[in-house]
User: What shape does this take?
Amino acid sequence: AQKITQTQPGMFVQEKEAVTLDCTYDTSDPSYGLFWYKQPSSGEMIFLIYQGSYDQQNATEGRYSLNFQKARKSANLVISASQLGDSAMYFCAMVDNAGNMLTFGGGTRLMVKP
Amino acid sequence: EAGVVQSPRYKIIEKKQPVAFWCNPISGHNTLYWYLQNLGQGPELLIRYENEEAVDDSQLPKDRFSAERLKGVDSTLKIQPAELGDSAVYLCASSPSRGHTGELFFGEGSRLTVL
Assistant: This one.
């Protein structure tokens, strides 16, 4: 069975600073995918970044990067130069080898201070 | 391109009443998902469709929940009768990819309050 753990219920960051949101996972599948989604107060889940378990390089998308440490089973999201609009819930998620299950973590609420 | 559309956005009902949620996925997306999101928690999969076929409904409480996607496009999720514990946000998502190998596109959700 898959499991995603996000240990930070809430985080504060100063505007323009970088922040790291933690995510650890557990799976017995040799191949899997890891996602990060953002959920603002409007409720819509917005895809941010994807990392495949066999990808050699850490994924990056603009100000978002994924610090993938396979041996530690961690997939932390790094947001550089935080903006007020980054204030939202952030969810780490995993898809299994067959692409048949997307498991979400409990989420981290990020609050960006002006 | 229009995103995933869900309605209603908000619904308040008394327990034991029925309720239905509607989802229109992105055009051309064959895979459709319904997720349940309790307050302060991550979404949990209820059911996944590939076209009109429900390929994963293992987490759907079938005694009171039902879903359909008759023409492989729009989908409806129904609860009958609703219980207090059903208060949550019901998210619909779609994907052009089979299974979950690709990005999911989510709607804004339908927030249900059961009194």
Observations:
- The radius of gyration of chain B is 13 Å.
- Chain B touches chain A through 25 residues (CB under 8 Å).
- The mean pLDDT of chain B is 92.
